[in-house]
Specification:
Length: about 575
């Protein structure tokens, strides 16, 4: 199982921490046993000889052991939380990367809510609960109970009760700190909600992210949010554990030091020894508290397997990133489809062949079927051909790094590819802001004057905008990216005729670019250098525009004449 491999690798990377943790568990158990034995020695051996100096030494040693025991327990809890959250974090990042990098067809196999539940619940449960709490608590508690049992058998005595005079003080500290924890916990819940919203939007907008080559950007954003959440989680849990459990031990130990000092003074005044009984009075609360913790541990192997299985269902999704050695081309001078075919469900393309040189524009019109949508996905490697080859500079795009390929290609689909963010962030996504490129994109998309009229200018959140403005922002993002290859698929369908003409003029002004224009508006196709006509997802005509127009029997020529008659 891939999830188990991730867990083992995470633990292997933190082997030094694990060694320190298990060493601390052993030392902690010894210190807990050592402190009652010191008390027993004080009562049975120190007090009878009436040595005040010796008593002070042993009482001081007892206090030091108690403080060290407290510090060791805090360290154990802190490192346990660290190991658990690191496992959860590594699992969550692996699941998120697997989902966001998966092939489009593969991602359809899982629901968005399933991805969110796996990251938000299953990954957290595996690391924080099963590893960070249950297993390590089980080991620690079992070791202590076993050690105490051996010690009790050697001492051969113990019954008693100890009054916890420090409980009221512990109660006040716990209640005061709980209010602080509650406030911090609200912030952590908000971070978790933001983290889940990020996952949901990324999965729902996966097509846009891939087209705009934002995969690495989104992973970096998610990693920051995920690490911030788990950092807050560790802080809350560490403080809660310290207040609820460790302060209790500390105050009991210090109270015992005071009682032993006072009791020792009384014993020096001719009182009989009760060292063994007192030692067991100390042991019994520890044993019962440890046993209570052990009883709270829930290790259900079936639940663990189910959660690991849910994680693996996403980790095994086939990634769109294959072995792709080409990460740079000297220049882009050609784009070619060579006998390309594709079959998947209702999507189908048969034997597509054409070639474009730098500076050329290809118009594609589909008479029937959804062939141009499939072509769009093939251009951007959202899907891969079953047969044939797609190449740039005679290099198969399957050998070109996917992220680099999407830097080379700007692809603008008909559907919405924007995010619930400001205009300026949507236009520059996923690249650093460049004022010159930004203003140029505003100008080419016709947004400059429109944005100036908005109340919040380019900080306006897009959810309040019209479909026309949304499409302009999508086009502005394309102009901002300014790649070597542009693919437009009905990219101006929401604009009126006048605005559409203005945008098309900007598209046709693009120099030294390879441009593919997919549209049902044939009069724009006529301005392209070459034309590809699809009918029932097959190529029926392909050639230079001028040649097809001269042939009055060509399908393209007939379609254009038909449009002119209607107009």
């Amino acid at each position: 199982m891939k999830s188990k491999n991730i867990i083992f690798k995470t633990l292997e990377k933190r082997l030094h921490t694990l060694i320190l943790l298990f060493s601390a568990i052993i030392v902690g158990a010894i210190l807990k046993i050592f402190s009652p034995l010191i008390v027993r020695n004080i009562i049975d051996n120190v007090l009878p000889i009436l040595s005040d100096g010796s008593l002070g030494l042993w009482v001081s040693l007892f206090a030091v052991v108690i403080v060290l025991s407290f510090a060791t327990e805090v360290f154990i809890k802190d490192r346990t939380l660290y190991i658990g959250t690191e496992v959860s974090n590594d699992l969550a990042k692996a699941v998120f990367s697997s989902a966001i990098r998966a092939e489009s067809g593969e991602l359809k196999k899982v629901k968005t809510d399933d991805v969110i539940n796996v990251i938000g619940e299953d990954c957290t449960t595996i690391g924080n609960k099963y590893i960070g709490r249950d297993w390590l608590t089980f080991i620690q508690s079992s070791l202590f109970l076993f050690t105490v049992f051996i010690t009790m058998m050697i001492l051969d005595a113990a019954l008693g009760l100890l009054t916890y005079v420090t409980l009221p003080l512990v109660y006040m500290i716990v209640k005061t700190t709980e209010k602080h924890i509650a406030g911090v916990n609200i912030k952590a819940e908000e971070e978790q909600k933001d983290r889940c919203n990020t996952i949901r939007e990324n999965i729902e907008k996966i097509r846009s992210i891939k087209l705009k080559n934002g995969v690495i950007y989104e992973e970096d954003i998610f990693n920051v949010k995920s690490e911030r959440f788990f950092k807050q989680y560790r802080g809350i849990q560490s403080l809660s554990e310290t207040v609820n459990f460790k302060l209790y031990d500390l105050f009991i130990g210090l109270a015992l030091a005071i009682i032993l000092g006072l009791g020792g003074h009384l014993t020096l005044n001719n009182q009989s020894s009760a060292g063994t009984v007192v030692a067991f009075v100390i042991f019994i609360p520890q044993v019962y508290m440890t046993y209570k913790r052990l009883m709270e541990v829930s290790i259900n192997f079936k639940n663990i397997e189910n959660e690991l299985g849910a994680i693996d269902d996403i980790l095994v999704l086939r990634s769109e990133v294959k072995a792709e050695p080409v990460t740079k081309l000297e220049d882009v001078h050609s784009l070619r489809f060579d006998s390309v075919s594709y079959y998947s469900g209702d999507d189908r393309l048969e034997n597509i062949s054409f070639e474009l040189k730098r500076g050329e524009k290809l118009g594609i019109i589909s008479v029937n079927g959804n062939g141009q949508d499939v072509l769009f996905d093939l251009f951007t490697k959202l899907v891969r051909p079953r047969d044939g080859e797609i190449s740039i500079n005679n290099c198969d795009i399957n050998k070109i790094n996917t992220f680099y390929l999407r830097d080379l290609i700007t692809a603008i689909p008909q559907d919405d590819t924007l995010f619930d963010d400001s205009i300026i962030n949507n236009i520059s996504y996923p690249f650093p802001f460049d004022e010159y490129k930004y203003n140029d994109a505003l100008h080419k998309s016709g947004l400059k004057n429109i944005v100036a009229t908005l109340e919040d200018k380019d900080q306006t959140v897009i959810e309040r905008l019209t479909p026309e403005l949304l499409q302009r922002i999508t086009l502005a993002n394309a102009f901002y990216k300014d790649s070597k290859i542009f693919i437009f698929n009905e990219a101006t369908s929401s604009l009126d005729v006048r605005d559409e003409d203005a945008i098309m003029n900007e598209i046709f002004k693009l120099k030294n670019k390879i441009v593919v224009l997919m549209t049902e508006k044939i009069y724009y196709i006529a301005k392209c250098d070459k034309v590809l006509v699809l009918d029932d997802d097959q190529v029926v005509e392909y050639g230079r525009t001028a040649d097809l127009l001269q042939d009055r029997n060509s399908l393209y020529s007939k379609l254009l004449r038909k449009v002119k008659k209607v107009s």
